[in-house]
Every structure is written in C-alpha cells, then in structure tokens.
Fold this sequence. Notes:
Blueprint: H1 14-22, E1 28-29, H2 42-54, H3 56-59, H4 69-81, E2 91-94, H5 96-108, E3 114-118, H6 123-129, E4 135-139, E5 141-142, E6 145-146, H7 148-157, E7 162-165, H8 179-192, E8 196-199, E9 224-229, E10 241-244, H9 247-260, H10 266-277, H11 281-307, E11 311-313, E12 321-326, H12 332-341, E13 344-345, E14 347-348, E15 362-366, H13 372-389
Parallel strand pairs: 1-13, 3-4, 3-7, 7-8, 8-9
Antiparallel strand pairs: 2-10, 5-6, 9-10, 11-12, 12-15, 14-15
The structure holds pyridoxal-5'-phosphate.
Amino acid sequence: MQFAKWTEVAQASVTREILKITQQPGVISFAGGVPAPELFPVEELTRAFAEALTDAQSSLQYTVTEGLPALRESVAGLMTERGVNCSADDIALIHGSQQGLDLVARLFLEPNDLVLVEETTYHGAVLAFNPHGVRFLAVRMDDQGMDVEHLRELLQQERPKLIYCTPTFQNPTSVSLSRPRRQVLAQLAAEFEVPVIEDDPYFGLQYDGEPQPVVKSFDQEDQVIYVGSFSKILAPGLRLGWVVARPDLVSKLNIAQMGSTLHVGTLLQHAVQAYLQTGGLPGHIKTLCDAYRPRRDAMLSALESVMSEVGRWSRPDGGFFVWVRLLEGFSSSRLLEAALAEKVAFVPGDAFYAAGGARDNCLRLSFSTPNVKEIEEGFTRLRHGLTQIKGTRIR
Ligand SMILES: Cc1ncc(COP(=O)(O)O)c(C=O)c1O
C-alpha cells in the first residue's frame, strides 16, 4: 500500500490520546474541550426532530448542496446579531466548523504554501491543512490575541496563502482578539489580499463583558471567511456549522462539499431550522453561560489556592479553557504524569504549537465538563500530585 505523503507527518491528536485515558473510571478530566452533556436541550431537539419528520418525504430525501434556504436565512439572522450583514446566498452549510476548515483548505492550499497561524492554535486546523503539504508560520500572541504588528511584518516578508485565526475565546488559551486588532486584521487581509479564516465556535459563550463584533464585520473587501458552528452552543453531535463568505467562494465551497458528502443531512437541516424557529436559542445560550460561569470561577479559585506558587494563568471571559504557564523549572509533561497518577487529566500545552516554539511549560485546563465539586476535587488531587514533583524540577 502506498499512502499519500502527508500521512507520514500525520499524528493522532495528543488530545485524543489523553481523552482515551479520561474514559477510565474515577478520572476527573480537565482535558476535553467538549460541551457539558447534561446541558443539551434534549426535549427541544426531540420536538424539533419529530417536527422535521412530519414532512418525512422531504426531510429523508437527498437535497441540493446549498441546503435549506430557510435555515440559511436563520443563520444569516444569527450573523446579523454578530455584526455581519449577510443573506442566505453568503452562507454555506457544513458538517461542523471542522469540515469548514477542510473545505476552505481544499479551495486555497497547494504543496509548500505558507499558512499563518497564531502562536498557539487549534490542533484540528493543523490536521485539516496538513494533507496539502503546507508550512506553518506563527504570529506572536499576547493577552489581546494575535499581535497584528507582527502579522504586518510577516505579511511584508512572506507570501502566505491563508491566515488562520480563532479570535474569540481561543482554543487553547481562551484569549480574545481586542476590538482594535480585529479591525486591523481585516484591514491587513484586504491590503495584502490574503484571506483570513475566522474560526469562531465559542462565540456566545461569554460569561463577563460585552461580545466583540466578529472580524468579518470589519471586512470591507470580503477577505474574511467566517466559520461558525452549532457544536458548542447547541450540540456537537449534530455536526452542523456554516461558512459566511462572498457568493463566488460559497459556490466553490458547495462544489467541494458535493465532492465530499453531497450535502449536510436533510433531516438535520429541517430539525435545526424547526428548533431555531422556536426562538429558543438565545435563552439556551444564556442557560449555558449561567452553567459554565460558576465552573470557570471554581477553576480560577482552585488554581489560586493550589497553583499560585508554580504558575500563572489568564482569566477567561468565556469559552471552555484556562491556559496555565508554569514558572521556570516546572515541566507540564512531568506534572501530567503526576496528575494522571492521581487520576486527573489535562492537555499539555505543546500540543497547540503548529509552527514550533513549544516549551514544556504550559497546560490547557478545560472547565466545561466537570461540575464545581469535581473541579474542587480535581485540584485537591492536583495539590497532592504537585507535592510529588515539587523540588524535582525535571526539565
Ligand atoms: C477552534 C475550534 N475550531 C473548530 C472546532 C471543531 O468544531 P466543530 O464541532 O464545529 O466541527 C473546535 C472544536 O473543539 C475548535 O475548538
């Protein structure tokens, strides 16, 4: 068997490997980046699927790749709330944002192309881009997200094909790009004519402060390809997301979709449209925020009492993660070993550096699935794990 060359560099995601460990009984996991299953709106979705099946002859049939106009109009309505004026024609339906990354990559990337990514970035995007044999270059980040002046320098020196960015509650750091930088990012994309993928699955999961307008809302020249998802705000098992882009790109994306899966499931489209028509989504997102906020707070206070001598971390306004940077002399892989021995899991930070530069000193802790009690218990165990490694300073 002769596999394609890119498979030689393909690695199973570290996150997935750790997630296997978290399946073991008694493990408290801060590793996953998945929504809390007890918060899924099961009754509402049951009703929506039942309603979709009342018109079974259409909802169980193939449909056109573009998908249901009514659903695309509802998504355009969601985008208006995010500051983007668009219509159903600007929207392509996809199987979750992950597929959006795959399809956009197919439209743009060729072997040896350069993709600019944030210093830490979503590993799934790397998996989607890798089959095209691309190179990655990292743009520096700080507590306001991507450093757009560094981006400008890189754009002056290099000719990247794409910029990939997760501006809202980034996976893994939960850092959000400041409003002025969002504007500059859109301007730079226009000036240098480099498309930006704005991957935005955490939009809406905002526990404090006001939401920032999405980068796409500053996009005068149509260089931003916005990728949205129902995974985090409704349920990832639906596998439904959307792309907002200019109509010619949407049309090419639909051709790529045709070659991939023909279209997003018809029943799913009818059901999600039925759900959206009830007007329940904003209330559901508020319920999610009210449930995740205390988990975030519990994690922040547990960090304060357990890890203040070994690390520093951000205080996220939303999303699923706290990003911890260990102080000099402490190692995240060593801490992971000690944590796993105590039946606590997290993801070491190295997994999120696509363009190198990883040091063994960061961790991504997720507060989305454990409840407040479990978070507290997890940190009690971590405290014990820490006493095992303190002083050993393995690096
Ligand atoms: C930044 C980012 N992009 C994309 C995805 C994939 O999400 P979806 O379920 O919409 O495919 C995730 C999932 O965790 C993510 O964190």
